[in-house]
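Narrative progress, year one. The postdoctoral researcher (J.K.) led the effort to move from monomer predictions toward full complexes, under supervision of the PI. The following entry was the first complex the group processed end to end, covering 956 residues in total.
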Amino acid sequence: MSSTSVLGGVVRRREDPALIQGRGRYTDDVKLARTAHVAFVRSPYAHATVGAIDTSAATAMEGVVAVYTAADTDHLGPLIAQVPVGALRPLLNNGTVKHVGEAVAMVVAEDPYVAKDAADSVEVDYEPMPAVVDLKQSLSDEVPVHEGASNTLISWVGPFGADEAALAELQAGIEAAKQRDDAVVVSQEMTNQRLIPVPIEPRSVLADYQAGYDRFDIYSSTQIPSALAGAIGKYFGMSMNQVTVKAMEVGGGFGCKLNVYNDEVLVAFASKQLDRPVKWTETRREAANSTIQGRGWVATATVTGTTSGEVLGFELEGIADMGAYSQNFTVAIPFLGLFVGSGQYGFPTYWKMDCVTTHTMTTDAYRGAGRPEAAYYLERIMDMYARRIGMDPAEVRRKNYISSSDFPGAVSPMGFPMDTGDYTTNLDAALEAAGWSDLLAERDAARAEGRHVGVGLATYVEVCGFGPSGLVDLGFSWAEYQMPSAFNGSSLVRVHPDGSATVSIGTGPSGQGHQTTWAQIVGDGLGLEVDRIRVIHGDTEEAPPSIGSFGSRSAAVDGAACYEATGKVRAKAARIAAHMLEASEADIEFADGGAHVAGAPDSSVSWGDIAACAYQPHRLPEGMEGGLEAHAIFSPGNATWPFGTHIAVVEVDPDTGDVDLLRYIGMDDCGNVISPMIVDGQVHGGIAQGIGQAMFEDAVYDADGNLLSGSLVDYILPTAADLPSFELDRTVTPTDVNPLGVKGIGEAGTIGSAQTVVNAVVDALEPLGVTHIDMPLRPRRVWQAIQDARA
Amino acid sequence: MKVSMSVNGRQVSGEAEPRTLLVHFLRESLGLTGTHVGCESSYCGACTISLDGKAVLSCTMLAAQADGADITTVEGLAQDGELHPVQEGFWERHGLQCGFCTPGMIMSAVTLLEENPEPSEEEIRRGIEGNLCRCTGYHNIVQAIEYAGARMRGEEPAPAEWENA
């Protein structure tokens, strides 16, 4: 295990003492006097006209404060979206519901139990209409999701930026390759099923409008506090500085808390109307059918290669499910897949995804967001190709990688410049860590005994750490949320007069350990003990505006902003220290809680001494301003492109179809590492979610649009007993796009893992003639595939 | 109706509706918000508490049913400012990320170690099967419980994986 840290190692997490003692403050834990509670009336139909809504019984109920319908809230407009392609969600439905779970009325009561009783008593006349759920049916426009509009919202075609002539030439080249004498063409339609994110903390929002000050405090379980503040301001004609959003502890997000939701706006509306705090916490069923879902692709992957393992072209054509309405990113998610459509390979790639609506809940960013889907198709079909030509799957990959000598300056076949990469070194390290040749020999020995053991390998490259402000030019502008500053990292470091320091930052972590990591970066830069540094995040009153935490961006973008702000503070402190010690600024070094003259440790001043001086301008060098703080905005030249190789070993029981995951090896490369402990933790969780998709999870809608997996009884998450301990290690290829050399790691595990497990299971069943099974690989499906292969 | 119980060594009583869930009584009436509600259907384990020495799910039990019971919640584990070894293990071995499942997970682990002081990895994994975690992949939770087990047996815990460079 590599324990190398650019900042000197592991610090126990500072967020933990509160959390392990039940003293963390999540949104639902916040109690304000006079709080009223919300329950929503939601559609039981996927597609139906909404007639009369009878709220009289609810209104008459003791303890009910108010009941609102679209007539009360339509003037606010629909839910705003960053990428507003397609129909936007009405805050409350005003005519035709488009999915099960869509909100049609909001009840506010003194007590949450009464609110639910009252919501149950609201009578709504629905006139059901045919629903469309199947993606191919949606593509045909046979049943429109929105009357008068095509179901296809956009088609993403890659390489990015290629014009029609270039695309035609690319396709003609791949067609010509298929005609070669030594050509092997392998093609497979595969489903990458819909998933429900399921953070264990349900979403919750508490709005406190203060009429006397005309301002809001909004407590919300969100990954994007500043964007929520901007959105609330926009809805109510207020400035960002009249709205404070606080997201103190967030109990998991995984992308599903990376939306401004209609419920957040509605709860704020009710608070303003009623002039009292109003709270809503979703139930687990609401989390399933009215918080965004992820994935949901059907696509055909085709590899054209030679009999000797040289890939001549890769094509992916398919359909992606957007659900009924567009929210924050929705149609942009498959575009993130396009970014990495050609993986870490250099071969020509043609890519086309049609984004269609269905009568289901909206899809948006779920951990990986487009990139796990893209990697899944690519790495499944590469594996099938390796099998077809009888070549070691690792060697087929090696043969087609972009060479490390192409960096810096490599441009992926999809048209994107990449930062740094060394895929062969990573692959070799993974094979060594797993004991690849021994593994294959053990597998073969097990097979000789009649056991169905399989070894699966997959490699990936991801793109993350979205920080370049130039992304605005690709349509990713946060202007809808009064955040035109877009993807910058932003950090404010302040040294107080007593020599302690505070980092104020706009990240919105949900378990990633920012209290610890930002303090490590600042502490390392200032030579100040971590315990002397307070980190404030998730509070828009304190922090400079920032777009929050998602897309594995925080360390690479906001962490870099922390680093740069620290550098500015240190530079000023060095001048002050030099002045105080009557030394040259160039000789000042920082360590052990203060500054000293190089080579003369006794000639020193503490941070308290320096800070006291900084706040007494008459003691400062001539012309220097008082104070000791700095703000830095960091906009990198590119995203970061982490990569890795994962290997799984499984055994399948052919009588039951049960898959036993025996070993899981991950060799990831996220550049430099600040905390090996936290990085490993991110990879563990990411892998578990990828294994969840491969083996257990499935958001199932029936043909009428009913969500059949709306509770944890039927939406199966992996438990501790389903998973092995993971065997992790790293290669280190620092990025050149930020001063820390770090790449994102939050999503890598998820991007690398689902196809690794499926490749292993297919390998186990190869002797029976199985070539593909769609996820999730639950026993019945595996058993059926075995029966079909035997038939 | 009035309900009385012992919670974390203190005798408490309060008003509850007949339908009030125990977890809501703990969180809303007593202000003990360490016990979390994750699914309201007994599947996630976030609301696990210790009731008369057993790990139970407080989201599927009425406050009225707990009348007269002896309850420990996560807030009652640390004694005189000393963390319980299981709490210490979660901190030392990075057994939590977002922390939302953690109180329930810790309460299950405490019961597990009381019943089986030296569990194998397999027994730990089976023992916490009823508690879902979405962040850690359970890897470091297993490490945390192994750490706690060693401490409770008076043994030196194995070094953390990141210390084995």
